[in-house]
Amino acid sequence: MSIILETEAQERQGSSCKVCNEAEGVIQCKICIGFHGWCKPCTVKVHKHLPFHQLEIWTGACYKDISLGKLGFVWFLGHGRDLCPLSSHWEDMED
Description:
Layout: H1 2-12, E1 27-29, H2 40-46, E2 55-58, E3 63-66
Antiparallel strand pairs: 1-2, 2-3
């Protein structure tokens, strides 16, 4: 097991995002084919139409599962997957 983790650590060191090539590529997808390392914003962009893919984030020692929601993804179910044009700020009512 330690050999597997060492191999993963070596792959991660100095790896930049495969989309923007600027930030560190710390997130990978278990479902997408090939090795991809994305930064958080690019992961959301790449997976905005693939919300059920399984993502992992590199912690520095190993990969841990992470959801798109934890990365800031919000899935809009109407208006062509965009925010409702008639929406306004709302607050929860107190009990």
